[in-house]
Specification:
- Belongs to the radical SAM superfamily. RlmN family.
- Its cofactor is [4Fe-4S] cluster.
- Keywords: 4Fe-4S, Cytoplasm, Disulfide bond, Iron, Iron-sulfur, Metal-binding, Methyltransferase, rRNA processing, S-adenosyl-L-methionine, Transferase, tRNA processing.
- The protein has 357 residues and is an alpha/beta fold.
- It has two domains: 59 residues, DNA polymerase, domain 1, CATH 1.10.150; 272 residues, Aldolase class I (TIM Barrel).
- Helix content is 35%, strand content 19%.
Length: 357
């Protein structure tokens, strides 16, 4: 039986970005410099109790314990692929579960984090949306995923070098906790992950794209596009009915103008649906003149969905057409193919009570 989160549940200490923690300390008659000490204990030493913060006064440790919790995630399942990919299924305090993935690259270790328990966007190719949205995660529950991944890498003396917000859920549907999370992992006294090593992906909640542009965060930004036309996108991604592809392109242009940053369009290839010559030609036309990169994604098979995987030959043909139109394009390297790699797939298999419609 899953216990629902209550209003009396303490806030996770990991939900406080540095400035918010400084303000809290000031309100509680404590010097601001304590924020640096607390962040050091949380993110460098990675303590698991407030009592372990031995250079803080007993009074301050008690204040912290009375007001906050140190979010911990229980590992339900840990899968390791031959290529080094690690996938965790974590249990939260209320019994719900989330996925987190560690991916190993030549340039370092990347962690893919979840922002919601389930998802309400309803993409017809995705296992994450099975069972709908249960609740949003606190910022601290997102931060805790990176910390747990780092603890796992500590065992082999490696570190998290980049973070992608592409796990279960729509990040912009949980906007304020997302931004707090980004500020904490980027902060020099936090996890100190460079802005250029952080990527956020959205299915396209247009008002939030404008808000995000105005944050002026110099991180990598990706749009799950997956189609060159409104008709095909609405079939794959029902969000297109509320946030049209035309208005999405306007928001993308605003983001680029405001930040000066190039964006990435993620384009999953589905056999016979969006992977033919006319689709490649249409995509090139749609994004013409936009400062962007296209990431072609050979989709993983998901038992609960019935889309057919595009052949390698057709993937290379699609890439070639885009390149002929001057599009900057790559094919995403596949990882974790011998485990439940697709987003939401492990949760759907292990926690059927959460993912039944």
């Amino acid at each position: 039986m899953i216990e629902m989160e209550t209003d009396t549940e303490k806030t996770s200490i990991f939900s406080l970005d540095f400035a918010t923690l400084e303000a809290w300390l000031k309100d509680h008659k404590e010097p601001k410099f304590r924020a640096g000490q607390i962040f050091d204990w949380l993110y460098k030493k990675r303590v698991t109790s407030f009592e372990g913060m031995t250079n803080l006064s007993k009074d301050l440790r008690d204040k912290l314990a009375n007001n906050f919790n140190l979010t911990t995630l229980k590992t339900l399942t840990k899968q390791e692929a031959k290529d080094g990919t690690i996938k965790f299924l974590f249990e939260l305090h209320d019994g719900y579960s989330i996925e987190t993935v560690v991916m190993r690259h030549d340039y370092g270790n990347s962690v893919c984090v979840t922002t919601q328990v389930g998802c309400r966007i309803g993409c017809t190719f995705c296992a994450s949306t099975l069972g709908g949205l249960k609740r949003n995660l606190q910022a601290g529950e997102i931060v805790a995923q990176v910390l747990e991944a780092q603890r796992s890498l500590d065992e082999v003396e490696e570190r998290v070098s980049s973070v992608v917000v592409m796990g279960i859920g729509e990040p912009f549907d949980n906007y304020d906790p997302l931004v707090a999370f980004l500020k904490t992992i980027n902060h020099e006294k936090g996890l100190n992950i460079g802005a250029r090593h952080i990527t956020v992906s959205t299915s396209g909640i247009i008002p939030k794209i404008y808000d995000f542009a105005n944050e002026k965060l110099q991180i990598n930004f990706a749009i799950s596009l997956h189609a060159p036309t409104a008709e095909i996108r609405s079939k794959l991604m029902p969000i297109n009915k509320a946030h049209s592809i035309e208005k999405l392109m306007d928001a993308v242009r605003y983001y680029i103008d405001k930040t000066g940053r190039r964006i990435t369009f993620e384009y999953g290839l589905f056999g016979g649906v969006n992977d033919q010559r006319e689709h490649a030609e249409g995509l090139a036309k749609l994004i013409k003149g936009i400062k962007c990169h296209v990431n072609l994604i050979p989709v993983n098979d998901v038992l609960e969905r019935d889309y057919v995987r595009t052949s390698k030959e057709d993937i290379y043909k699609f890439e070639k057409i885009l390149k002929a139109h001057g599009v900057n394009v790559t094919i995403r390297r596949e990882q974790g193919h011998d485990i439940d790699a697709a987003c939401g797939q492990l949760r759907a298999k292990e926690r059927k009570d959460e993912t039944r419609g």
